[in-house]
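Lest this sound abstract, we think one record worth quoting, the chain in one-letter code, the fold tokenised, each line plainly labelled:

>
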Amino acid sequence: MEVLMNRLKELTELNGTSGAEDAVRNYILAQIPKDLSPVVDPLGNVLVYKKGRKDKGHIMVSAHMDEVALMVSDITDEGYLKFKTVGGIDSKVLYSKRVTVEGHLGVIAGKAVHLQDKEERKKPASVKSLCIDIGAASKEDVPFETGVYAYFDTKFMRLGEKAVKAKALDDRVGCSILLSLMEKEYDVNITFCFLTREEIGLAGAVAASYTVAPEEALVIEGTVCSDVPGTKPHEYVTQFGGGAVVPFMDGSLIADKDMFNQLKQIAEEENIPIQHKRSVSGGTDAGAIHKSRGGVKTAVISVPCRYIHSPAGMMHIDDFYAVYRLAEAYLKRR
């Protein structure tokens, strides 16, 4: 399990948003066992076919490589960087956060509270009103052009005995789990898929699932955990330390009934803690995969993560291991 955690640390500290997953992809390619032959498709997906011992069936197991980030859309005459979000980011989490842009440190800046009028203080600053300050004196002092990305400057860190703090847990948790699953032997044929562009519309999943043409698919994700102050227990989507999340439905998928029931049964027999999402909002690559070609039986297993799509998310180590154990047990029984 130490290898699994070390991979998660290394993956979360890499930068790679939608359409710019290069660093993450290169890391993954370097980790793939030498007896396997990865294929990189035109959208940058990494597809790794592993023949089963009994050469039966064909399962697609996927996770996405991209993370939410910011893209520089304009540079003011004074040297400030205006930006757009890549993926869904709440503007409330942005003000004063450290970012890196092409190797340069910066701070997301806005109007100081002392200068805000009463109406401005009542609502969070919009993305449009914010900018990135890298300490440039003018536009000519900025050493890059528009179209580059800004990433949250967040390091992986253990908090207490069971928690981890990091950026990009969505979905580097899935990528690290896939790399470890790939090292095991199974009876069933599997294509492990590290996908691109999930955060901007599931484009990588659309292309990969068409190419792979699996009989069924298992998606490994990071999902919302909302058991925080101000949220009543009956409003929790998932709970920190509550186990692997096996959703029956979200905003893009109704899980295949047989796969869902098998996952529940395996969890019970293997004594793996699981929980179900209490909200059907949001979506994953499964939303595209299950509609590919003539249709694909699809289910999802997720790690519940607090503060998802923000500069610093949190994950419970036991939940992370529970997702790995459940995915491995499911594949070994196919």
Remarks:
- The chain has a mean pLDDT of 94.
- The chain has eight helices and 17 strands.
- Helices lie at 2-12, 22-31, 118-121, 169-181, 203-212, 257-269, 286-289, 317-332.
- The first strand starts at residue 39 and ends at 40.
